[in-house]
Amino acid sequence: MGGLQKKKYERGSATNYITRNKARKKLQLSLPDFRRLCILKGIYPHEPKHKKKVNKGSTAPRTFYLLKDIRFLLHEPIVGKFREYKVFVRKLKKAYGKTEWSSVERLKENKPAYKLDHIIKERYPSFIDALRDIDDALCMCFLFSTFARTGKCHVQTIQLCRRLTVEWMNYVIASRALKKVFISIKGIYYQAEAMGQLITWLVPYQFSHDHPTDVDYRVMATFTEFYTTLLGFINFRLYHSLNLLYPPKVSWTLKQSQMKLSALSASLARVVSTAEEDEAELDQFPVDGEDMANMEAREKEQKQEEAQKKLFEGLKFFLNREVPRESLAFLIRCFGGEVSWDKSVCIGSTYEVKDETITHQIVDRPNIDKQYINRYYIQPQWVYDCVNAKIILPVEDYFLGVTLPPHLSPFVEEKDGDYVPPEKLKIMALQRGEKPAHEQEDEEEEEEEDEEEEEEEEEDDNEEEGDDGEEAEEKNLKKMEEQRSQGKSLSVKVTAGKVKVENPARLEQEEKAEEKRLAIMMMKKKEKYLYDKIMFGKKRKVREANKLAAKRKAHDDAEKSKKKARK
Amino acid sequence: MEESSSSSTRSAAQTHKIKEKEPQKGGKKRTKAEEEEEEELFNFKSKSTEEEEEDEDLSDSEDSIFSGLEDSGSDEDDDDEELSDDGDEEGLDDGELKLEQTQQIGIETKKETEETGETEETEGGRTEKAKQEDEYVHDSSDEEDIRNTVGNVPMEWYRDFPHIGYNLDGKKIYKPIRNKDELDDFLDKMDNPDYWRTVPDKQTGSDVVLSDEQVQLVNRLQRGQFGDANFNEYEPQVEFFSRDVMLHPVTNRPADKRSFIPSLIEKEKVSKLVHAIKMGWIKPRRVEDDSRGRYYDLWANEDSSILARHKMHLPAPKIPLPGHQESYNPPTGVPRALWEQQDPCDRKLPFVPRKFSSLRQVPAFSRFIHERFERCLDLYLCPRQRKMRVNVNPEDLIPKLPKPKDLQPFPTTQSLVYRGHSGLVRSISVSPSGQWLASGSDDGSVRFWEVCSSRCLKTVQVGGAVKSVAWNPNPSVCLLAVALDSVVLILSPSLADRQVVLSSERLLSAPQEADANEGAGPVTWSETEGEELNHGIRLKIQHPKAVQQVSWHAKGDYVASVMPDHSSNLQVLIHQLSRRRSQNPFRKNKGLVQCVSFHPVRPYFFVGTQRSVRIYNLVKQEMTKKLQANSKWISQHGDHVICGSYDCRLSWFDLDLSTKPYKMLRHHKKAVRGVAYHRLYPLFASASDDGTVIVCHGTVYNDLLQNPLIVPVKVLRGHEITHDLGVLDVTFHPTQPWVFSSGADATIRLFT
């Protein structure tokens, strides 16, 4: 036999992967540095298809990186900076140890620093790529901006995060990009559309955090370092896309907690003072048939969007001190409303409570002493629900002391077959322009629907009933036979037979069902498995929807009975 | 002591001056310490009260100036001496005084410096001259009491002498005559108002009454205050060494030599630094790079040259958006208890849904930072994988089969039920004419039914559970083989034309040439008589072991019987009816035989064992094929064989294709109990313990390239499951598309 003996693990997938420790050694980095590098460069481990092959026959649990990724890291200039920093720390320690303060000073002045610009450009070659990946960045920056100076991270980082988030919010206001908002138990979710990308972020409630001990803040800080850089560049680009000056002229010298609000109430300076932004209207192309319908639908949608952007225009809000000011001010300004609050609570208020032109006052307490007659006193949920419904909802359900209607997630899009909460149906009806009917009617409708559902269920049951009928008949026969065999008096009696009404449609249905069942029997094993899985999922969905509906019904019934009892 | 006194000769004159005033005040004996105090007092007095004697005191003050400046050293020496003296003399009450003294000296010098300040201001030039002259004028040993010249010796030494020391003239100073005893002392204490301020002077042995000022002084010192009541402690300090260049230097020492010569050490240091800078070890101060926090249009020139690293890169998946349940005010109530009961891995939601009546009641989410952190970990620690989501319409997965309607005829409905047996019906068989049905049951009877009317024509009690019945497939004879226990019975039910009955009689009463060999074989043939004969039992074939199954050859002359046994090769026997001869076709044991069967047309003999089905060619007397299937029941038709087994499977073999099953059908949920092929129609049926009979249509095309098509056409239900047994046997009608099934519920059913 000619040729060299082939050695194991010298070709194929074993050469494409590298373990974490080997990668670390190849890069000559400590584990924290390696971790930082991976975070900054967006390198993540890979799960090889044949783990044992890659692991050279061993089954020990290991983390694998692609060798290509690690080679790519070798040329990263930041690695050099990491090493420099390590040397710097060593020198500094030495100088401190020798109490050479002058050299400490000198070293500190020459502290190595690195920039992440090139990494961002590399990870996101186009702006849209970057925008697509901004969700996490926003969440993290919003979180860090709520941190107090607890030593968990640098104060500069916190300040930078605050600045960037305020800039982002200002962009959203200026571009009227906000689409959805949702108050969850975790915080408030916002969704905006920038350059055609849906961007969702979560802002925690304004409480001080109790910092958990089992969280590595260094990891978070590294991420934040990257995210702040990314967000800064994105903000720059977005501001310029709106012809706005960046960085916006906001007085950063204000007290940090108040900074956001004051920034929100201030309008931004434009580079070019355009009299009116000319919206790029869709040009009319001569089209026919389906395209026409499509176009019309699109135009309609656009109009709707326009309308949503001006949702609160002409309304004047006043925020009581107990409502989340920042969130509400942001929302109202996003949709063109005017907003103010008490002067003593926070700076940036533009008008007083006494202002007669205020249309809505947002209050989150059971009742209020002094009420003005020409304004609505509503609970904050109204604003959020209006934004999600894209229309001004009737205020009756949101008055003070009233039990609020449930706050639904705008992110859930129900497909047919899913459970749709009745409140959503109501809102959908309102959106369609139907007038809110009396509640009782609604309920009746619901009941009718329920009945229909029940009927359907019955139909399913009927199939089994057919079998039951046969069985019963057989039992009868058996009895007769027994009697006969016992030689008892054969009470020969001719009973009038019943005419069995056969429903041809029903029969056909049954036949089809049977056919299907038989065909399923003939499925291959693999396909059968898949089919069973899919069907299981479908059935579970239906079951869950039914469960929710039943729960709802029980809840409503309980409410009704309570009402009656009260009456 | 001596030297100090000698050195203080000059100063003695000065103190003398003061002492001259002393007798005016007190003139009594005093201790040394008090004297000192007094001295100070007097010193102060001389300043404060005797201002008029200025010209006289001028020199005095001058003296003190320089003593304060230059000779502070010697002054201190004296102080030390004094201190040590004091310690020797009076151990007790000097403790407090020591401190006071030192303080006082400090004050003294200060006072003097003040004065110098004044004098410097007034007469700057003169002081310098005076300093030159009177450098040693001031000597502090003047403070000693000169009346007694013993010096600082302990006074105990003079205890035994009448005198206490010597005066300046060398005369003895005698102790005052102390005739006071305790009583006198006491009286004195009571009477004398000045008793409390009377202090004995150790040096002279006399009592001294302190003046008011002295008492005040003592009080002040005891309180830790300065001795001089008028002294201002908080006067502004006079800076000697200030940054202002004075007209006169503080010292006029000439400059050192080293201040003119360039320093070697410095040179070394500088050269080191120069070298370090040259080598680039010391970098020049970095220019503050403010571009770090500055943003610009990063994507100004979006060139596609910088592509994403490679194709393997996957963008991170986004966090799923929240549903209704995450709302602070969800649409329905929330079962918190259920959530808490579940395991963390079973939970559908990673949080507890909660409901709040208003927004102000919503607290902070305690796991917020945790969740963010976990997301971070996911981003950099989790391998990413592209998961293909199966987006199949489940309807597409169902194979497209021809409609059962198009494949008719096949049995669809249960039309007749044959009742009569009291035990489970193990086996049924249809006569070749299709008119009669024979059934064997566990109740020990074989029944004959008319197919069309479901009437039981005949019941034969055979006296044992019937394992198997088989109707002779030859239409010209009418015989039935019945297997029970270890016997195979040949029945002649005489349910046919006379001619047929006669021909069967003829077959049974054929020449019995085999009788001779009978003894040698394991089987005994015997004819029945009497009662049994009347019932129609014609022959008894006694086997050595329990017979499980019987099967006829198509011509109706041979019948095969199965005695399953692991250990012996005597498992299958073939009996020839016409010659009453039995033979054991296999010499070797090839596994536990489950069933045997003759091919209806070809000279094949099928032996089903637990592992395989062996096909023997009867003409060539050899094995032609071995089908790999675990079989319990076999049925065959043409080139196709179906095998059923207890593991719910039905395998369909094409003998031309392979020894492996062409199709495995897993229609049944429980063990398959029987399989049957229709002689004429492309139908086969399988019976199972789940109480169903499934009829399948097996189309075999003449075109060899087209695969046979197996379509299940009907699931027939009817039998009840009793004791976990459902349908036990199934068989087709020889001409009609009907299927019979016998079940554990003691019925036989006909499906048409």
Automatic annotation (TrEMBL), chain A:
InterPro entries tied to this protein: BRCT_dom, BRCT_dom_sf, PES
Keywords: Coiled coil, Nucleus, Ribosome biogenesis, rRNA processing
First-listed, main subcellular location of the protein, grouped into a coarse class: nucleus
Domain BRCT: 307-400
Region spans: Disordered: 431-512, 542-567
UniProt keyword RNA-binding present: no
SUPFAM superfamilies, sorted: BRCT domain
PROSITE patterns: BRCT
GO molecular function: ribonucleoprotein complex binding; RNA binding
Segments traversing the membrane: none
Compositional bias annotation for Acidic residues: 440-473
Transport is among the record's keywords: no
CDD domains tied to this protein: BRCT_pescadillo_like (cd17709)
GO cellular component terms attached to this protein's record: nucleoplasm; PeBoW complex; preribosome, large subunit precursor
Family the UniProt entry places it in: Belongs to the pescadillo family.
Functional note: Component of the PeBoW complex, which is required for maturation of 28S and 5.8S ribosomal RNAs and formation of the 60S ribosome.
Protein name as it appears in the record: Pescadillo homolog
Automatic annotation (TrEMBL), chain B:
Location of this chain's protein in the cell: Nucleus, Nucleolus; Nucleus, Nucleoplasm
GO biological process: maturation of 5.8S rRNA from tricistronic rRNA transcript (SSU-rRNA, 5.8S rRNA, LSU-rRNA); maturation of LSU-rRNA from tricistronic rRNA transcript (SSU-rRNA, 5.8S rRNA, LSU-rRNA)
Protein name, as recorded: Ribosome biogenesis protein BOP1
Highest taxon, organism lineage: Eukaryota
Biased composition (Basic and acidic residues): 123-140
Feature: compositional bias, Acidic residues: 50-63, 72-94
An example Gene Ontology molecular-function term: ribonucleoprotein complex binding
Limits of the BOP1 N-terminal domain: 158-411
WD repeat copies, ranges: 418-459, 720-752
Keywords: Nucleus, Repeat, Ribosome biogenesis, rRNA processing, WD repeat
Disordered: region residues: 1-144
Family statement: Belongs to the WD repeat BOP1/ERB1 family.
GO annotation, cellular component aspect: nucleoplasm; PeBoW complex; preribosome, large subunit precursor
Functional summary from the UniProt entry: Component of the PeBoW complex, which is required for maturation of 28S and 5.8S ribosomal RNAs and formation of the 60S ribosome.
Transmembrane segments: none
Subunit structure: Component of the PeBoW complex, composed of BOP1, PES1 and WDR12. The complex is held together by BOP1, which interacts with PES1 via its N-terminal domain and with WDR12 via a high-affinity interaction between the seven-bladed beta-propeller domains of the 2 proteins. The NOP7 complex associates with the 66S pre-ribosome. The PeBoW complex associates with DDX27, BOP1 interacts directly with DDX27.
